[in-house]
Amino acid sequence: MTAPLASDRAYVPFVSVDNMMKLVHSIGIEAMLAGIASYIEEDFRRWELFDKTPRVAAHSKEGVIELMPTSDGETYGFKYVNGHPKNTKEGLQTVTAFGLLADVYTGYPVLLTEMTLLTALRTAATSAVVAKYLAPKGATTMAMIGNGAQSEFQALAMKVLCGIDTLRLFDTDPKATEKLTRNLAGLGMTLVPCKTAEEAVQGAHIITTCTADKQNATVLNDNMVGAGVHLNAIGGDCPGKTELAPAILHRADVFVEYPPQTRIEGEIQNMPEDFAVTEMWQVISGQAEGRRDDRQITLFDGVGFATEDFSALRYIRDQLEGTGLYQDLDMLADPDDPRDLFGMVLRATPASEAAT
User: What is the pTM of this model?
Assistant: First the structure.
């Protein structure tokens, strides 16, 4: 979809939070998760086409603000995102984001959209894509350690893509578990609130850790992880923020998105530089092995990477045609004569005249 034009001036479609929510309802959240997942899987298969760099981060004691750029040579995309765990206590979101797609040939933006909601959708879709390749065959039960803003999306994506039908839930804040249970009621999953993380992991085929505190925490001890489990460790996403006891990493086969970024931000940030990992694009494209047997412990050290945002942005762009669920933003100065930018300003109607 190209940017709509009006009155001979280029406009950029903008998807607001309100329109993103309407789009989710129009498509259906489970269908949207499956759709984003298919775009992510497609882009993992063509991974080598992409420009790749660790995200550009500005760290502070309160959190982090990051830019996540990439391009496949035809389309450029980036996401602005923050991560401020302390925000929850102040009634604010831990993560907020917006993103943009542009045409590489002209450099013109073709889409601007909120990405706070879209990041939650793409993070969950990525987890489920990875679990398709790494989770034990016939997995039906997932432990969800950390029941905050990401948890419902993670649960539904695992249901849609991997067949998970039972959730064992734990959060240090019981109100978070109550919230998750309330939100997922009637959506076809058995929900089992647990009093401890140890209780939650019992009988789970997949364990998802998704906590928010910016610290080197031990959400899972080594003795809590049995043979054959797939760990979806997505809470560690910046320096100084991890969730797993180091011994678990030594027992598991560890899979990552982009090693130069994960070694800075992920669970492996405390491991030696030569600690062995496998890149997920290699597994998805058939160049590397994923799950080998029923006793193998697999660990996805997911920190989020720019190609996944690119996939989600592509998906949104392709769904907008004919929906009307966007606004035309007048954000490109595009004079009839590209050499006469000053003349366009001279010929503009002054604000005082426009008001009369």
Answer: 0.92
